Amino acid sequence: MTLTATQAKPAPALLPRAGGLRGALSDLFWRKPKLLLLLMLLPPVLWLGIVYIGSLFALLLQSFFSIDEFSGLINRQFTLKTYGDLLQAANLDIILRTVTMAALVTLASAIIAFPIAYYAARYARGRWKALFYLGIMLPLWSSYLVKIYAWKLILAKEGILTWLLAKLHLLWLLDGWLSLPIVGGNSLSVSPTGTFIVFVYVWLPFMILPVQAALERVPGNLVEASSDLGASPGQTFRNVLFPLALPGIVAGSIFTFSLTLGDYIIPQIIGTSRLFIGQAVYSQQGTAGNIPLAAAFTVVPIVIMGFYLWGAKRMGAFDAL
Amino acid sequence: MTSAVSFQKVSRHFGSVRAVDMVDLDIVPGEFFAMLGPSGSGKTTCLRLIAGFEQPTSGSISIFGERAEGVPPYRRNVNTVFQDYALFPHLNVLDNVAYGLMVKGVGKLERQKAAEEALSLVRLPGYGARRPGQLSGGQRQRVALARALVNQPKVLLLDEPLGALDLKLRENMQEELKSLQKALGITFVFVTHDQGEALSMADRVAVFNDGRIMQIGTPEDIYQRPKTRFVADFVGSSNVLPPDFVQRYSGQHRWGSLRPESIRIGRAAKGDGVAARLVSTNYLGATTRLALDADGLRLHAIVPAGAKLPREGEAVMLTFNREHLHLMDEPA
């Protein structure tokens, strides 16, 4: 019994509270964990609520005002006149162009991302996996503007792509494509095709990562089970892999779709002079000084994304985030 | 008669690891065949070789007389019940069971009818609309079984299908699997590390160790007449006796095996037998397992519960019927 011999008196079953305010607070937070949570969440919630959402609502409110066409002053009375302006053919054209571009970029990103994500989720291990993440993330660490200007050089008539195609005697292919209506132009860097390529390049990582996360969660033996039950690789893809990766694809498409809807820099630097929603907002609130119409334009992607997210939620897309 | 599955000198190496090494194997059509061994012994790799998930590094595999190397899993009329069932989480139970028929192009009504029948066969009628996530482990196991059986495979492969079930359920499923196999007449190949399971269910057992088959035989062969020390020890934890010890009782200088239930415990210094000391007792319910020390040799004995036992540390005299001492082939 050396243990009791060395102790003057037996240790108490309950230890005394640490002294001062700190001890009292620790005990209080332990008894009421929700209080601690509230205190931790209050600053970010206030920031989100007031600065972020609040300013957004202030902007949306502007869309229900109208602009006096003679004085250029904002008439602060509730009206739907600005939304009427939004529905003019020229503005609808901008909306349609942007939504079509966003949809095509999303589709192309999904098609390109799937094999990459599949490889990363199924086959890449250790060093290769690290290399995969580095390859996906590295472009995200460099400046967005630098990347876009780099693409402008790549896609220019004097650029490396034209040079490469000329070396391969495939210039006729490029010229044929550029002579097509709608997608074509003088060179790739001033054609909608160029805008599309750069959009896909810039947003692709946002598609690859959620698809990879979704595929990572598909147990490998499901693929084996499908094969075991007589499904060819194509059937396994359609019946097992694709349905299980779909939430990830939808999650990724939320990024690619909404980012394309709102971007105004890429179409300004690469592509035709025809406007996209982001550019319309930029010019309406800037040079034109028509804040109400700019606000109304802003509402368009918000509404589209609202419907999109509602549909995505029903497909279980947020389980993969 | 052609074998259901035949391995000729089959090896499967992963780099320098010989998962399966020169295995010869013939599985008779309609039999319940168990592959028994510790984890990493190559039994699951053998199963995967039959299913087609793995290809042999060398040797040849035939299924009902047809060469199977290079044939992908989806062109083999062989189905697998996976260890963790591998049910498709996005499909309901009925679509899971009907999956094999669906990919073969069987019409919707016909395949749903067949799937319903398969579910009745595994005693889960009316569960078709549920999701796999809503089922218990035992029910999932049955769905996996129905999903395989609905395809009427020539060989059904089962990869430790009972491993995740609790004891009571496992015992029920053992009986059910065995009667199902008898009724259907399909060749079952069953992988397990549980020797009790292998002995109670299989018509024949192959004992694996280090990628090789140590012994193939009926459960009785394997249990009563182990050929090597490994088999004696792994199947039923027999007492493995060194050649010098065996020579005293049988006159032959060979390794011996003595089942723990064959040892009788007597009072010390009475009659002729093996003098030993009782080290510890382990109460197991129906029986009690005794650890004994016979002059440095550790032995185990199993006696029925309720027998009067000496105290731990006491000297005892062990006796056994000479016929029960089995001599093994393994060189001394």
From TrEMBL, chain A:
Domain of life assignment: Bacteria
Family the entry assigns: Belongs to the binding-protein-dependent transport system permease family. CysTW subfamily.
Coiled coil regions, renumbered to chain: none
PANTHER family: INNER MEMBRANE ABC TRANSPORTER PERMEASE PROTEIN YDCU-RELATED, INNER MEMBRANE ABC TRANSPORTER PERMEASE PROTEIN YDCU-RELATED-RELATED
Protein known as: Spermidine/putrescine ABC transporter permease
Compartment(s) where it occurs, according to its Swiss-Prot or TrEMBL record: Cell membrane
Membrane topology: Multi-pass membrane protein
Keywords: Cell membrane, Membrane, Transmembrane, Transmembrane helix, Transport
Transmembrane segments: 35-61, 94-119, 131-154, 160-183, 195-215, 244-266, 287-311
Keyword Cell membrane: yes
A GO biological-process term: transmembrane transport
Main location: membrane
GO cellular component, one term: plasma membrane
Automatic annotation (TrEMBL), chain B:
Start and end residues of each ABC transporter domain: 5-235
Pfam families cross-referenced by the UniProt entry: ABC_tran (PF00005), TOBE_2 (PF08402)
Domain of life of the native organism: Bacteria
Keywords in alphabetical order: ATP-binding, Nucleotide-binding, Transport
GO MF annotation list: ATP binding; ATP hydrolysis activity; transmembrane transporter activity
A single Gene Ontology CC term: ATP-binding cassette (ABC) transporter complex
InterPro entries listed in its UniProt record: AAA+_ATPase, ABC_SmlMolc_Importer, ABC_transporter-like_ATP-bd, ABC_transporter-like_CS, Mo/tungstate-bd_C_term_dom, NA-bd_OB-fold, P-loop_NTPase, Transp-assoc_OB_typ2
UniProt-listed Gene3D superfamilies: 2.40.50.100, Nucleic acid-binding proteins, P-loop containing nucleotide triphosphate hydrolases
Protein's UniProt keywords contain Endoplasmic reticulum: no
GO biological process: putrescine transport
Similarity-based family: Belongs to the ABC transporter superfamily.
Name of the protein this chain belongs to: Polyamine ABC transporter ATP-binding protein
